[in-house]
Fold this protein.
Amino acid sequence: MVAGKVKMAVGFQKSPKPPSHVKLELPEHEVVPETAFLVPVPEGLICSKNAEIAKSVKRIEELEASDERMSREME
């Protein structure tokens, strides 16, 4: 626990201080090397995601063209 006030059911009470021998710092941890896993993905899922991405790209291009057209109209 951290020293300070903690709201209890009966009201505010001081939380106990940690003993002086308790280390309050987080120890350094070793970095674990990254590992890669091959996970099988159904081809249909890949195709549907590709179609979704293509549709999104087309929509972005339409919005950019519309934005450019509106900017020219305002000039």
